[in-house]
Every structure is written in structure tokens, then in C-alpha cells.
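[agent] plan:
  1. take the single chain provided in the ticket
  2. run structure prediction with default settings
  3. attach C-alpha cells to the ticket
  4. add a short note for the reviewer (M.T.)
[agent] executing step 1
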Amino acid sequence: MRRPRATVSRGRVTAPANRSKRSRRHANFREPVAVYSAHTNTLMTPSIVANSLALAFTLFGGACVFAVLAGLPGAWILIISAMMIDCLDWLWLPAGSSFTFHPLTIIAVIIMATIGELLEFALSAAGARKFGASPRGMIGSMIGGVIGALVGTVLILIPLVGTLTGAVIGTAMGAMLGELTHEGRKLHETAKPALGAVIGRILGTLAKLPISLAVWMTLAIAAFTA
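[agent] step 2 finished; step 3 output follows
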């Protein structure tokens, strides 16, 4: 006897009519739903949805790595995004599937990002202190670097060049303003600490960028091989 087949309606796949109520509930809510696309007349299967999200995540990760040059925590933004996907991937993955990003993968990239932050801080502080920058100058350089990178990206419409130029100028100006908060400090006395802050910022970014790239590649590979 031929078994009844599931029918496809606009929006989702419905269970055969002679299935029990419990079986139909399981089919509708526990199994991944194939979505009908009116534009392409095709069914968006769970694998297509997962691959599309993996591609979008990879492109977003590239933007996060670029944000590292602006002094933003791009690696951490990417890691948090991966954790959010793990919390929501039951919406498109088949029942019983493992996470898109394995917990050990998340732990590994967290360790990598932490090492990157420590390297950036150590090199930035070493460069700034070597030229006599105070803690106020270092804090000012970090804030100024972020603001300068954002402004440079908008005003200098050359990819990467505008961001780096703005970050360097902002770092120097932030360090100078930070040093000027000391009582009796003259403007010409802030030039050397500002130079140290810029050198430290460049060294810190150069150390952090490869690690951010490694975090991106690790998560991108995991997204496509899930």
C-alpha cells in the first residue's frame, strides 16, 4: 500500500494527513522547516540556510578584522557573534545536530583573542613608557586612536589608508591631550610622549592583527564545516 506523502504549501512542509497529532507536532516544530521562496520557486532547505549564514558570518568576520585597525575589539565582536549563532542555530539545523561552533572552538578563539589583547597592551605600554608617556597619555592615546580611525575612515575615502592615517593622528593628539592634563606640563613637552604612544600603538596593532586573522579563519572554517 502506498504511503501518503508530505505536501508542500507556501511557507512550510506539512505532515501527511493520516499522521497522529503528536507526529504532526513533531514534524512542524522539531524538524527543520523547508521555506518556500516565491521569488525563485524553490525550497530553502536547512543546508542552504546554514551555508548562507556561514557566508554572511565570514564576510562579517572580515569587517571585524578590519575594525582591529581602528582600535576596536573586532576579534571579541566576532566571538560574541559566534556564540549568539550557537544559541540560535536550532532554528535551521536538524534536530540533534551539534552546535555550529563547537564549545572547544569557542574556548580556543577566546584564548587566542586574550593573547592578542595582552600583546597589544604590553607593546603599546612599552613603546609609550620608553619615550616618557604617563598613564594619562597612554589612555588618551587609546581613546584618540579609536576616534581618529573612525574620522579618518569617513574623511579619507581610501580603504585602509584613511583608517590607519586617522588612527595615527588620533593616537598622537590623544596622547598630547592626556599629557597636558598634568599640572605645569607644556605643549612642547608632550611631543616625545606622543611619539612613543604612536610607536606603541603601531607595534600593538601589528601584534594583534595576525591573531585576529587567526580567530576569523578558525571560526569561518568551523561555520562551513558544521
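[agent] step 4 note for reviewer: Confidence is low (pLDDT under 50) at residues 8-13, 20-43.
[agent] ticket updated
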